[in-house]
Structures are given as structure tokens and as C-alpha cells.
Amino acid sequence: MRNSIVKLVAIASIVISPLIAVPASAKDIVDTAVAAGSFKTLVSAIKAAGLVETLQRPGPFTVFAPTDAAFAKLPAGTLNSLLKPENKAKLVAILTYHVVPGRTMSADLNGKDLRVKTVEGEEVTIDGRKGVMVNNAHVINPDIAADNGVIHVIDTVLIPK
User: What average pLDDT score do residues 48-56 get?
Assistant: First the structure.
């Protein structure tokens, strides 16, 4: 029966979230992002920053994950610069600014206007009054479940102050 429920949830996720297919057997945040296929840049950045093991820990984590298209909107040369070893600390700060401790589903944000502390240490503004926005990024695909948290797909890379 458990397998039937998992398959049903996976099918519902695919129907509800057509932008990104969620594998039937979701894994940790990193494995889920890899399987989705639209986070190649994010996964490369996570690897360059040395954060793979961190995001594979039990968590739970809420990750506001920029798509490859979101990274493409950065000014020319920004991403290449961030991926250089000498800029690792800045890359870590940017990536951890996209992570909030705990598992927060989009339903928990509906109708709310919040400031939430990120793993990086600064706060982000979450506005759930008309859809969900994180700072200036729109959540375009919410609630992608992983064993150790949830991913909310965003259309813009968040940059800490």
C-alpha cells in the first residue's frame, strides 16, 4: 500500500507541477535537484561551494532554488566569477541565502508577509499574499518534496546584502 501511495503522490506531483517532474522516489535535496533536470547550474554551484554533504544531511531544509534560466539572468561573467575557488566564500553566502531551516510548504505561507532568517544569517522577505515571492523572486513551482526538506523553484537568484 505504501508503494501505491508513493506512486500516487508522484503522479499527482507531475500533474500539478508540469514545469519540473518529481521522481517517484524522491531523495535528499541534492538528488531531487539533479533528477529535476532544470537545476544544472545550481547543482554545479553547490558542488563548487562544497555544500553537497550539507544539503544531504537530515535537515529539514526549505530551499528556494533558482532555475538555470534564473542564473542566466545574472550579469555577464558573474557566475563564472563566483565559481572560481577564490570566490568560494561569496558563493557559499549566496547559496546558503537560498536555504531556510525547517520544512515550509507553500500552504504555510499563503496570506502571510514574513521575514525569515536564512542559513546564511540574513533575512529574506516572504510575501504569500498574491502567490509566493521571496524578496524579488517569484515561486514558480512550489512544494517539491525531498526526504530532507522541500524545494520551491524561483525565477531569480537571491543575492544577500
Answer: 93
Q: Residue 8: what pLDDT?
A: 30
Q: Looking at this protein, which amino acid is placed at residue 2?
A: R
Helix (H) or strand (E) holding 7, with range, is: helix 2-16
Q: How many CB atoms lie within 10 A of CB 157?
A: 24
Respond yes or no on whether the N-terminal peptide bond of residue 60 is cis (omega within 30° of 0): yes
DSSP state for residue 24 in the 8-state scheme = T
Query: Could you tell me which residue, 58 or 21, shows the higher pLDDT?
Result: 58
Give the whole-angstrom CA distance, residue 72 versus residue 6: 34
**What's the per-residue H, E or C state across 117-160?**
ECCCCCEEEEECCCCCEECCEEEEEEEEEECCEEEEEECCCCCC
Q: For helices 40-49 and 88-96, what crossing angle results, to 10°?
A: 120
Predicted confidence at residue 37, as pLDDT, reads 84
In order, the DSSP letters of 37-58 are SS-HHHHHHHHHHT-HHHHTSS
CATH topology of domain 27-154: FAS1 domain (2.30.180)
Q: Give the whole-angstrom CA distance, residue 26 versus residue 156.
A: 24
Q: What is the pLDDT of residue 15?
A: 31
Q: What is the pLDDT of residue 21?
A: 43
Query: Cell for 19?
Result: 514545469
